[in-house]
Amino acid sequence: MPAITEDDTISSIADALQFISYYHPRDFIRAMASAWETEKSPAAKDAIAQILVNSRMAALGHRPICQDTGVANITARIGVQAQLGWKRPLQEIVDDAVRLAYRNSDNPLRASVVADPFGERGNTRDNAPAMLHVEMVSGDRVTFDVSAKGGGSENKTRFAVLNPSASVADWVVETVETLGAGWCPPGILGIGIGGSVDKAMVMAKQALNEPIDVTALRETGPTTPEEELRLEIIERINALGIGAQGLGGVTTALDVKIRSFPTHAASLPVAMVPNCAATRHVSFTLDGNGPAQLEAPDLSDWPDLNIEDSWSNARRVDLDSLTRDGIAEWQPGETLLLSGKILTGRDAAHRRIQQLLAEGKTLPVDVRDRAIYYVGPVDPVGNEVVGPAGPTTSTRMDKYSDMMLDRLGVAVMVGKAERGDATIEAIARNKAAYLIAVGGAAYLVSQAIREAQVIAFEDLGMEAIHEFTLKDMPVTVAVDAKGNSVHRSGPLRWRK
Fold first, then answer.
1. What string of pLDDT tens digits covers the 496 residues of the chain?
2. Which helix (H) or strand (E) holds 489?
3. In 10 A of CB 367, how many CB atoms?
4. What angle do CA 399, 401, 403 make, to 5 degrees?
5. Which burial class, exposed, middle or buried, applies to 181 when counting CB atoms under 10 A from its CB (0-12, 13-18, 19+)?
6. What does the alpha-carbon distance between residue 464 and residue 181 come to, in Å, rounded to a whole number?
7. What angle, rounded to 10 degrees, do the helices at 6-22 and 42-61 form?
């Protein structure tokens, strides 16, 4: 058996990270297509359609499905008889692969990893280091599970140590109901039960790489307690009515995956890790005979959808002539097509604005009566004016709402997921509005961006303030000028 080399390991992991940036797993495409066929909520059905169209576009264009190209999560299962030609620690080898993948000039991926997490949080600029987990298993080969986990779904991870007599299903369902839409449903839930604190979390995350098979499980029926629990949880979660993007609908989870392990008699650790509509993972095995060969999905795996038909009655909005009276006409759940100029800004830009105001300094851009889009785009390639540019979770900007709305006069905010009560009150107080773009449709959204330039805080990289010129960017009214929220009314309507 020839040795597994560092070069083959690096090139295989780098290829896998590129591969999953633009290819959804085949089982995920089919599960999402099935969800689209059965969805009864028009708003959720349109959101799922956008996700599927975006997925096919990304596959054809070899550009990221989502602008948040994620943190690299790598599990290595090393056979105890494997012949390894490695001279360095595996972490160093994997990190070299991450740098190679994320700096690929043909398809550069967004670097989201920051060093010094409790200090300056400076971006590493290459998305290294990876989150590496190593296991020793039987055999003479090495298997890698490679996934890219975005911040929106990762931030919704939850853990609890339950009473041994408590219901795991009750805890999961009650917890999902509190998550909001920041994890970009519909997606997958990975659940780890038992073990220790760290073991439960690892099991939950690794379970997300398992094939989606809940439809087959329903047909054959459960044969183990874990399978019974999976079916109970997914039925109860989908009955909550949260739906795609939290708009209200019949499908919130595409599957629930569970792994368990023996635990202490006094404990019942439970970890839950959601995977979003940009679910991205692939597995491969190295045996010393060269790098991995990855099989791409077939174009026939995607349904043939024309989402523009659903926008034929959408309201067209000129952002260059926004008025509060015009904004007052928008209705919750209504589809808008935005054209004109929009500013961008997310966490770091809002924090910088806050600092400048505290120091009594002049802001580099006037945001009064403007629209602002919460986005950190991928770098463009070729003839692109901007790379994939989907929304980030808006809840993180809630702490700045009074500053942006009351003090600076922002008229419209665009992001994803729900807003908090105080922000909704500020929106109504200022007769503003909050709109959502579909999380997981970043490449589709970027096609509506005709011009882009950085106009402030260039040192912040992807978090700099850009000005985009739009042509028919699809969004949904999530909070209207009166403070009515579709993230409240939608799930209530579809809850069983």
1. 799 999 999 999 999 999 999 999 999 999 999 999 999 999 999 999 999 999 999 999 999 999 999 999 999 999 999 999 999 999 999 999 999 999 999 999 999 999 989 888 888 999 999 999 999 999 999 999 999 999 999 999 999 999 999 999 999 999 999 999 999 999 999 999 999 999 999 999 999 999 999 999 999 999 999 999 999 999 999 999 999 999 999 999 999 999 999 999 999 999 999 999 999 999 999 999 999 999 999 989 999 888 877 788 899 999 999 999 999 999 999 999 999 999 999 999 999 999 999 999 999 999 999 999 999 999 999 999 999 999 999 999 999 999 999 999 999 999 999 999 999 999 999 999 999 999 989 999 999 999 999 999 999 988 999 999 999 999 999 999 999 999 999 999 999 8
2. helix 486-494
3. 17
4. 100
5. buried
6. 25
7. 140
In order of start, what are the domains of the chain with their CATH numbers? 151-277 (3.30.1330), 313-494 (3.20.130.10)
0.70 cut: is pTM over it?
A: yes
Strand, coil or helix: 252: coil
CA distances in angstroms from 295 to 112, 211, 301, listed in the order given: 27, 16, 13
- CA atoms of 158 and 180, how far apart (whole Å): 13
Cβ neighbours of residue 399 closer than 8 Å, sequence gap 6 or more: none
Cβ-proximal residues to 235 (8 Å cutoff; 6+ apart), any chain = none
Q: What per-residue string of b and e applies to 111-130 under the rule 16 or more CB within 10 Å gives b?
A: bbbeeeeeeeeebbebbbbb
Per DSSP, what are the bridge partners of residue 453? 467
Q: For residue 229, what are its two tokens? A: 């629990």
Identity of residue 151: G
Token representation of residue 316: 């067209």
- Structure tokens that stand for 361 in this block: 């300094």
**The tokens of 30 are what?**
């089919």
